[in-house]
Amino acid sequence: MKHIIAIDGPAAAGKSTVARQLAADLGYTYIDTGAMYRAVALACMQQHIPFTDESGCGEIAIHSDIQLEAVDGGCIVLLNGADVTAEIRTPLVAQGASKVSVIPKVREALVAKQRQLAEHCNVVMEGRDIGTVVFPEADCKIFLSASLEKRAQRRYADMLAKGNAISLDEIRAEMAERDERDSSRTHSPLKQAADAHYLDSTDLTMEAVLAFIEKQMIGE
What own/partner pairs with CB < 8 Å and gap ≥ 24 does 202-206 have? Predict the structure, then answer.
């Protein structure tokens, strides 16, 4: 097994931006596990499988070919050979990902895929259960958070930039609901690993967050 940096935390805490840049700085492979759950949600939608059908969603997760290809500091998401990078970033798919992510069979299937992705390369992997479930033995663990208001504002700005019409109030409410669902689920809940370094990014720049993580890596 190669060197693994695990970054966990709630939605819009800055995990993706920081993880992508950190991976680029280190020459590591960046793995966005949230994109994998979004891909499963999209596959379920394409095959008209309701998110309430736990068995059906689980089978989709098991049999879907989900690949992440690094490009320009980010990654292209391939679902069964098709580029779905843009499709999985819609609000509807995001809501679906939140729902399928609570299904144990889906999580078990994707955890197995995530571990396979890290078998032959150094990785920066971000998600919600990387340091607790996927790689509890990760070399460096970070739990990155921020206030609900700040996270909602970040997601709102991102949605506007992509042309999605949604209000800040809607995003705030959906995010609060997602936080509750993620932290209260029975299987692989969102929580800080006992040996993870906590960082609140509410008032921090990406450069400050990166400096914090690199300092913890040196300490490891």
Answer: 202/146, 202/147, 202/150, 206/14, 206/17, 206/18, 206/21
